[in-house]
Amino acid sequence: MTLRDRWHSYIERFRNKTGWKILDAYLLRKFLGSVIYAIALLMTIVVIFDLSENIQRFMDKGVPVGEIITGYYLNFIPYFINLFIPLFTFISVIWFTSKLSSHNEIISILGNGITFNRFLLPYLVGSLIIVLISLFLANSVVPHTNAKLNEFKYKYFGRAAISTTNIHVKNNSHSYIFVERWDRRQDQGYFATYESFDDYHVVDKITAQTMKYNEKTGLWNLHKYVRRQIVDGKEYVTSGDDIDTTLNVLPLNFSQDVFISETMTYKELRRFIREEKKRGSSLVANYQIEAHKRVSNPLGIIIMTFLGVSVSSRKNARGVGVHIFIGMGLAFTFIFLQQISTVFSVSGGLPPVLGTWIPNLIFLVVTLVLLKMAQK
Asked: What is the mean pLDDT of residues 307-314?
C-alpha cells in the first residue's frame, strides 16, 4: 500500500468513525480559509510597516533587494506567523462564526438535530491541524530562520559586535570561570579568571588577558596568563605569553543572551538547558520558559478556538462588531497574563512550567464555562 493509499484509508476511517458530513467539510474550509486570510492580511501589514521603518537602513548599508527578500523577510515572516498564530486563529474563529450566527446558519444547524458538541467537531479538527503546523514551525522551522535572520543582521547591521560583561560559568563541581567581557563576534573573552577549589580553599587560579577557543584542537588558548597553584601548602606561581588548556565549556556558554535559545530546535534546547543547569547559568529560567512556550503556545490554539466559538456562536442584534470587541478584550487579557506570568517566572520565583502554563489553564476554565453557557 502506497503512502497516498494509506492516507486515504486513514481519512475514510476517520469519516466513518465520526460521521463526517458535507457540513463539517464546509465549516472546516471556512475555518482554515479564514485563518489563512487573516495571516496573509496581517503579515502584509507587518511587512509594510517593517519595510517603511528599515528601508533607509537597507539603503545606507547597500543591501541588495534579493538579499532583503531572501535573507531578511523570508526569515522574518515565519517568526511572526508562529508568534501570533493563536491570535490569528482566535480572530478568524470569531469573524466567520459571527457571520454564521448573523445569517442564522448556526440556528438552522442546531435546529436540524445536530447537537452543539457535534457542531464543534470541525473546529476541533481545524485547531488540531493548526496545532501541528504551529508545533512544526516553533520547533523546527523558526529556530532555523531565526539563525539566518541573525546572520543577516550581523552581516549588515553589526549586531554581533555587542559584548556581554561579568559572566560567571560553572566549569565543573569544583571549578568556576569568570570573564569580565565576552565578544560574541570574535568568540573571545577578556580578563578571564579560572579558579579551582578543594573543600575549603582555592588550589589553582589562572588569570589571563584573553581566552579564545580553538575548534580544531578543542583547547582554550589563554594569552598573557598568570597561574598560582597550591601544592602541599606551598604556592607556585608561573606566567607566560600563551598556554593551551582543556575546559569543560564552549564559547556558546559565554554568550549569555536569552535570545540564543530562539535559534535552537526543541531537542537542542532541552540538551542546552541540561548543560546550563550543570554550569549554574543565571539564564536557565529564561531558556526553560522558551522550551515550555514551544508546546504551550501551540496547544493554546485549541483553547483560543473554542473560546472564540463560545463568544461568537450566539446571535447578537448589534452584529459582528460586538463579538470582535469582546474577543479582542479577551485576547489582550490572555497576552497580558502571559507577560505577567513570564516576569514572575524570571524574577519572582514562580517555576517556569507554571509561568508558561497558568494563562492556558485560566483560559481553559473560562472557555469551559462559556461553552456551557453558549447557545445550545
From this structure: 83
